[in-house]
Structure formats: structure tokens, C-alpha cells
Design brief:
247 residues; alpha/beta; Rossmann fold; 2 domains; six-stranded parallel beta sheet; two-stranded antiparallel sheet; 12 helices; binds magnesium ion
Length: 247
Amino acid sequence: MMKVCDSRLPDAQAEAPVPQQRGYLIWDFDGTLGYRPGQWSGAMVQVAQRFAGLDVDLETVRPYMRKGFPWHNPSLPNPPMRAPDDWWNGLLPVFEEAFIGCRISSEQASTLATKVRSVYTDVSEWRLYDDTLVTLRELGAEGWNHAILSNHVPELPLLIHGLGLDLLVDHVVNSAETGFEKPHPGAFQAVLAKLQDPAEIWMIGDNIEADFFGAESAGLSAILVRSFDVRAGRRADSLREVRQFLG
Ligand SMILES: [Mg+2]
């Protein structure tokens, strides 16, 4: 993405002197830069309400969202460049089982399962954290380039565009395309292959296994953000606080 040529950038930013390049910051997306309130479980509740007028309990559906997704089995890669329809079709049994677990008939559950995709990927349901844009801009002005490495749905690039993040990020590497879910080393190799020999590379994310340990196993320095784990050698409560580690 050519940042300086994008007509949506303010003139002042487009004309700012190019700072000395310091390297790449590789960001996780979900739970780090942006989030969907209620996450998958919230989307399931919305689907049942919107398409069947049924009240589903968030806590009843939540355990069903903790298994069966590609990122729940990261040691098993999927074929690269799977068609989005195939990716979503693989999840229909997970959604059906969840709706049935919420006492919805199997017939209605299979219908509702087909609605999850459009509801989950509705960009109007997604948010950026308050410190996301300002921090990425500030770090960009200091010479850092940004990439995203995410375990996510095929529509991730549309969500990133809809949230205005694409203006600040050079590369988006998504497990739905590569087939590699963090912490699989293939996920990190896929993003590193896009970066042209930067001086420094950092991985920043909210998941201790996928983001922190995954990156460190791949030879990268990592920072855990927005979550606490004593095993993380570097952690920050907010994105702005990651700067203390960047030297
Ligand atoms: Mg995350």
C-alpha cells in the first residue's frame, strides 16, 4: 500500500519528511488493534435474535465458540488461498452445534448457521481501540512501518479497510489466506517474507501463546499487550506503552 499516494491522507501528512526507517512492527489485529463487542458469541446472539426472534444466552453459546475454529488447532495448517466460501462452510457444523446447544431445533439451527458470516463480518459492528490510530501514526512518524499478522476470517482485509487501518499498514497477512494459524512458525514466515530486510522487527499482540510465544519461537522479539501473563518478558497495558521497549 503506497501511503503517500492515498488521497484520503491529509496534505500535511503526505508532505511530511520521511523519517529514518527503524523497522517493522507486526501487530495482531483482534484484541490488539480492534475488536468486535461480544466477539463470536455476541454475533451468534445477534443472529438468533435477528433471523429467528430468539433470545440466546451469551454464556450458553460461549463454550461452543472455543473449539472447531482453525485457530483452535494451529499445529494443523489448512491449504493456502482457500476460497472464502470453503472457509466458512467448514464452520457451519460449529455454528449449528452451538445453536442446537441453545435449544434451537436442528432445522432452524442449520438455517441460522448460514447467517453468521454476514453478521460477524459487518464492519459497522467492529471497533478500534481508542489508542490504535494515534499510536500507529505516532510510531509511523518515528520511522516504524506497520504490518498485521492475524488469525482471522477471510474478510479481514475488508474490516481493516472499513476501520481505516489500511492507510497505516503496509501488509496484512491473514491465516484464512496462508493456512497457517499463529503460533505456527509458518504464520511468522509468511509475514517475514513480505518485509524487506528491516533493521528491527517486533511482534505485538494480546495472546500469550499465538502472539508472544509464537513470535519468540520464530526468533522475533515480542510484546504482550492488553492482557496479563507473568510468563511474558515484556508487556504493556496500552499500545502507547509499547514504545518503552522499542529503544
Ligand atoms: Mg488477538
